[in-house]
TrEMBL record:
GO terms for molecular function: ATP binding; protein kinase activity. Residues 1-234 form the Protein kinase domain. It comes from the Eukaryota. Transmembrane segments: none annotated. This is Protein kinase domain-containing protein. It comes from Trametes versicolor (strain FP-101664) (White-rot fungus). Signal peptide: none annotated. InterPro entries: Kinase-like_dom_sf, Prot_kinase_dom.
Length: 234
């Protein structure tokens, strides 16, 4: 995949973030889900990023034509949270965590085979054009909203007051799955907590990751080999 990332100063932050997390030793960390940056191509003041092509998107994880089980989908959500927990730990807020910006190697479609997969596809975090790198120890951010911007945003971003910079990523991620129901109360409880309007009561990405992992690890894989309830389809 060859993608134009920057023209002059426009896109510079995006490119700087890719350089800091998507190449070198840090890109090999198992909890780093950013799409690798293989090479940069420069044409005058234009910078292109060369990356591996990941053909599927998490946005289609429960579309009509995809036969993913609850286990397949929840594993993707867990990896999305792990991806956010990692970038937050190094001060990066993504600010566009809709499920369409998470890519998956393939869709397991366990409902088609009615077997628990022997291996799970890896989820990658993509599209850092709205992302921002915060200074160490940052506890709040400005009231600016990245634009042009048409995504739903967390309540605190509409408040007009400074807000904790990373919690909106959690709210926006789970908001993208608002039309998905696992039918498993313990899983639904974790997802519902991520929609908490008051940011101080909302779990961080790392906390939500650990809570969801605890629920999943307490269950037999076969119990997740069920169809989700979906209220709308993309």
């Amino acid at each position: 995949m060859v993608r134009m990332v920057a023209i002059g100063d426009e896109g510079k932050t995006h490119m700087d973030i890719l350089r800091s997390i998507a190449q070198g030793v840090i890109s090999l960390r198992t909890d780093n889900h950013s799409v690798p940056l293989w090479q940069e191509v420069h044409l005058e003041d234009i910078v292109f990023a060369v990356s591996p092509f990941v053909g599927a998107t998490v946005a289609h994880s429960y579309a009509l034509h995809v036969k993913n089980s609850v286990g397949d989908i929840v594993d993707m959500i867990l990896q999305c949270l792990e991806a956010l927990a990692f970038i937050h730990s190094i001060g990066i807020a993504h600010r566009d965590t809709d499920k369409s910006n998470f890519l998956v190697q393939w869709h397991p479609e366990s409902l088609a085979t009615m077997r628990v997969p022997l291996s799970r596809p890896r989820v990658y975090l993509n599209d850092f054009e709205h992302a921002f790198k915060h200074s160490p120890g940052t506890t709040s951010t400005s009231v600016t909203i990245p634009g042009p911007y048409l995504r739903p945003i967390a309540p605190e971003m509409r408040s007009g007051e400074p807000y904790e910079p990373f919690k909106p990523d959690v709210w926006q991620l789970v908001n993208g799955f608002s039309d998905f129901q696992s039918t498993i109360p313990a899983i639904e409880d974790v997802l519902e907590a991520m929609t908490e309007p008051e940011a101080s009561k909302r779990p961080s990405a790392a906390e939500a990751r650990d809570q969801l992992a605890k629920v999943i690890n307490s269950m037999l894989p076969e119990t997740l080999l069920i169809a989700p309830i979906v209220t709308t389809f993309d």
